[in-house]
Write a structure and sequence with these properties.
The protein is α/β, with parallel strands linked by helices and 214 residues long. The protein is built from ten helices and seven strands. The longest helix has 15 residues. The termini are far apart. The relative contact order is 0.15. The structure holds 5-(4-fluorophenyl)-2,3-dihydroxy-N-(2-hydroxyethyl)benzamide and magnesium ion.
Length: 214
């Protein structure tokens, strides 16, 4: 049987990027996905917004829901301060396998813990399993119908503190309409929409940044 899209993306990284150089890994994936084969990475346009929000928050403990091939994992981990940690959750074992190799190729394996499984099952276990008190930053990029239930789960498990920042991908395309309603109508969040484009296209998409007010 042939290779998968994630496997071809990994090959492109191994061929075109420099081991231990996160920026070259990001550029190799963006080039491949723009010129050879589209893939659902957050991409370079929305990636610049992710970089800027991440740098502003400078989290000690960050969570990513939806690793896919590890592109945004690398974008986030490369900007973390020494000693800070990123936990990333991926349900699909084939995606997780490629992501581990891309994260390692970038040399960021010591900053990242990739947890395989369903976010709904894993979130309630994170405090006890990893000794996490709070997440200062959460990047939501997994199944769009899981954004609301998992946000409620993070609240109920006491994993958000006053000032924790949620940043959600794809709120326009494919869309997360219930999530936008939830964070924009809740008195517990201060929300803002960052207009951009769906990765590697001219289609509109954007990121919603929501600050938890406690
Ligand atoms: O499903 C997504 N992620 C969770 C699975 O890991 C996802 C999908 C798309 C997308 C797909 C098909 C299309 F036509 C348009 C958008 C884009 C994304 O950024 C995404 O994160
Ligand atoms: Mg996405």
């Amino acid at each position: 049987t042939g290779s998968s899209r994630p496997q071809r993306m990994l090959k492109a990284v191994q061929k075109n990027a420099t081991k231990g150089d996160p920026q070259s890994v990001i550029s190799a994936i963006d080039h491949y996905c723009r010129h050879k084969e589209w893939a659902m990475n957050v991409g370079d346009d929305k990636g610049l917004i992710l970089d800027s929000v991440l740098t502003e928050v400078n989290p000690s403990t960050a969570l990513e829901l939806g690793t896919y091939c590890g592109y945004s994992t690398v974008r986030i981990a490369r900007l973390l301060s020494p000693g800070s940690k990123l936990f990333t959750v991926e349900f699909n074992p084939a995606f997780a396998e490629v992501a581990r190799q891309i994260i390692a190729y970038a040399g960021l394996q010591d900053k990242v813990t990739l947890v395989e499984g369903s976010s709904g099952d894993l979130i309630p276990k994170m405090k006890e399993q990893f000794g996490i008190k709070y997440f200062d930053f959460v990047f939501l990029d997994h199944w769009k119908d899981r954004y609301v239930p998992d946000t409620k789960l993070l609240e109920d498990c006491g994993l958000l503190k006053k000032g924790s920042v949620l940043l959600a991908d794809n709120v326009i395309c494919p869309g997360a309409p219930e999530y936008l309603k939830y964070v924009r109508n809740s008195p517990r969040y201060e929300s803002r929409y960052y207009k951009s484009n769906l990765e590697y296209t001219k289609v509109e998409d954007g990121l919603e940044k929501s600050v938890f007010l406690g």
